[in-house]
Write a structure and sequence with these properties.
alpha/beta; six-stranded mixed beta sheet; 6 helices; signal; His_PPase_superfam; Histidine phosphatase family protein; His_Pase_superF_clade-1
């Protein structure tokens, strides 16, 4: 029954998107934090139509079996990457869910080398592994102590499970530095 509730919640999350978008002051503070470095930024992949989850029989290693980025999603990822570059934001490490829509978003940002990390896999599709994936993601985020920024491109439901924030497609949630790495410092919606 809890799996059904989570699936319904995830569907509503996708339908209603982000209820609260960053204010101008919040965005200015987030840009400042990212320029200073040492932060973790969680980004929801850009537009990938078709509901939530993936079609029956999908395979992570076969993009043709998954929901993929739309033309808008591809263009948005390129625009977001260009904006991050214009703002002088650099990422020391870029991690991605192994799902094609996340990897493609990360590549189209054109900000550096991308590594896939299974613990950022889709918690809606892998609902039986949700707790383990979320715990693994928290542990990976907690280990980030570099002076540079870490970018993680993942799924909206994963970001919600980690932070309680329901991001729009392409939205970036920047986490506070220090010991409370799952507390949002702010959000950026750059499309």
């Amino acid at each position: 029954m809890s799996c059904i509730r989570f699936a319904i919640f995830a569907l509503l999350l996708g339908l209603f998107g982000s209820a609260e978008i960053a204010t101008a002051d919040e965005a200015a503070n987030v840009w400042k934090a990212l320029r200073a470095g040492g932060h973790v930024a969680l980004m929801r992949h850009t537009d990938a139509p078709g509901g939530f989850g993936d079609p029956p029989g999908f395979r992570v290693e076969d993009c043709a079996t998954q929901r993929n980025l739309s033309a808008k999603g591809r263009a948005d990822a390129e625009k977001i990457g260009a904006r991050l570059k214009r703002e002088g934001i650099a990422f020391e490490t870029i991690l991605s869910s192994p799902w094609c829509r996340c990897v493609d978003t990360a590549k189209l940002l054109d900000l550096g080398t991308i590594e896939t990390e299974a613990t950022f896999g889709n918690v809606v599709v892998l609902r039986d592994q949700r707790e383990a994936l979320t715990a693994g993601a928290r542990a990976r985020i907690a280990k980030w102590t570099s002076r540079g920024n870490l970018l993680i491109v993942t799924h909206g439901a994963n970001i919600f499970a980690l932070t309680g924030v329901s991001p729009a497609s392409g939205e970036i949630v920047v986490l506070k530095s220090g010991s409370d790495r799952t507390e949002p410092a702010g959000r950026l919606l750059l499309d």
